[in-house]
Description:
alpha+beta, Archaeosine Trna-guanine Transglycosylase, Chain: A, domain 4, Pseudouridine synthase, Alpha-Beta Plaits, 3 domains, 23% helix
Amino acid sequence: xxxxxxxxxxxxxxxxxxxxxxxxxxxxxxxxxxxxxxxxxxxxxxxxxxxxxxxxxxxxxxxxxxxxxxxxxxxxxxxxxxxxxxxxxxxxxxxxxxxxxxxxxxxxxxxxxxxxxxxxxxxxxxxxxxxxxxxxxxxxxxxxxxxxxxxxxxxxxxxxxxxxxxxxxxxxxxxxxxxxxxxxxxxxxxxxxxxxxxxxxxxxxxxxxxxxxxxxxxxxxxxxxxxxxxxxxxxxxxxxxxxxxxxxxxxxxxxxxxxxxxxxxxxxxxxxxxxxxxxxxxxxxxxxxxxxxxxxxxxxxxxxxxxxxxxxxxxxxxxxxxxxxxxxxxxxx
Length: 333
């Protein structure tokens, strides 16, 4: 599996080979594991809630749990990422990534294009919002980052403006539309909204629920996995953009059993790691082992020979996929 990391952005700590008897490249997992460690991007239609879609996907795949990477309101359409079984462990990574939407603001009075464009510029950058009443979070004012708002089109007869916005996770676009109207001295409502990007995933990776159902039925009736494998993305794709540290085979199972990741277990790592960065711990076959927070910078990792490197938050890989190599206390030496 390939990531967008360039070779020149990787520092080799030690030369080490991986044993082909243990683990496998993410795309070569057997189909049951491929599903459990998968990502499914559903093109959500208006009507159902995100939780309803999660429930339907769980039923289709006969799983015990399916999460999602960021709620969409019932009337909002677009990209909704499903997290089957073991993939639910990366939910924090997915829910915290930047989002992008296309929407329509309906104004109560005629508006001029130039005034709207100026207000879009005004609301670009750090903004302050109070979550709406229906939000399942504390209604305290909080700051969020709006990276851009682009004016796309205006329908003067209907007093509608089509726009595109890129924003930090947790930004309420509905509230943003209302606030823009208030600045113009009129009422404004979000008439329509579609999510077109969530982190590295865009709407081109989406399928409808019916597509997923058809692929599952083909697999169950004929044994043909290719349609299902085309729809499901390996969970490792979530980490494209997250700083990575690759560890030797002998370190993998120790981490899965809760051991700290220390310098001797590291084979290579990305440049530019800062303290408290999100870190993906990877096997040499590019399997996602765990995620955590960096305790050291890339420069420190390169310069020292011992010490803890990552505060592990969630172990993704199941235990004993790789051999156990310690006798008493888990170690990644």
